Amino acid sequence: MLTILQQIILGIVQGITEWIPISSSAALVFLLSNFYGITNFNDLIITSLFFHLGTFFAALIYFKKDVADLTRSLFNYKYVDETKKRTIKFLFFSTIISAAVGIVILKTLASFDALEFTGKTISIFIGILLLFTGIIQFKARNHGLKRERNLKIKDGLLLGVAQGLAVLPGISRSGITISTLLLKKYDDTTALRLSFLMSLPIVLIGNIVLNFKDLVFSGTALYGLVATFVFGILTIHLLMNVSKKINFGWFVIIFAFLMMFSVLI
Fold it and tell me: pTM higher than 0.90 for the full model?
């Protein structure tokens, strides 16, 4: 059982790192395994997924107009314009593929259910995956002109695979999805918006399908969710304003080497 202070610390970390490409799951798993003594893989995934509920509500509130508009369009699909239809199809296919890829990865890793990973082993694993994320960030820094009106089903399928890979701690969901969209020549604002919207259905489905039977809303857990929600909204707002000025690639790679270096300490 995590204490109130531990819940708040984890909530702050999740709220900040979910929206910047350094992998919130990696940061949470690192803290849980190295400082809180949780090393069972399934427990790490379940705890990490629970904190994603806080950033789910943060994104839902921040993009409430977009969500409401897309929901209305879904129920009036025949009468909406082509851009909204393309966005709905993109979100539908990316969610389905994300769920399929994520479940396959988690089921494969679940075969090691009884295996207790050490904090050092987890740190090396996360560090390697973060290096992969950082490299993608550098390759993605080319500006495109595509917007939602240019979305195709194959984009949804590709982004679904990318988002599905983010169940691995160290692969940043926001980092890999934003980078993939930028590599597909979508502009920065469109890439950010689509990445944030993509997170909503998959996080909700993940908690219902994978976490529901283990979901316990204790008093201490509530503190963690509130901290995640507050810092999640603040970070989204900040990121939307500074995203075009910052390349997180170097930060991610430095963080990866520091994490792997910590194994030697």
Answer: no
pLDDT, tens digit, for every residue of 124-151? 776 777 677 777 767 766 566 889 999 9
Report d(CA 254, CA 131) in Å as an integer.
9
Q: With the C-alpha atoms ordered 178, 180, 181, 182, is the resulting torsion angle positive or negative?
A: positive
Evaluate if residue 263 carries a pLDDT over 70. no
Task: Record the tokens describing residue 125, joined without a space.
Answer: 């694993």
Closest by alpha carbon to 41, among 97, 115, 108? 115
List the one residue out of 88, 64, 62, 65 whose CA is nearest residue 76: 88
Give the domain ranges of the chain. 4-264
- Count other Cβ atoms within 10 Å, centred on residue 48: 21
CA-wise closest residue to 194 among 208, 204, 180: 180
Return d(Cα 223, Cα 238) in angstroms, integer: 23
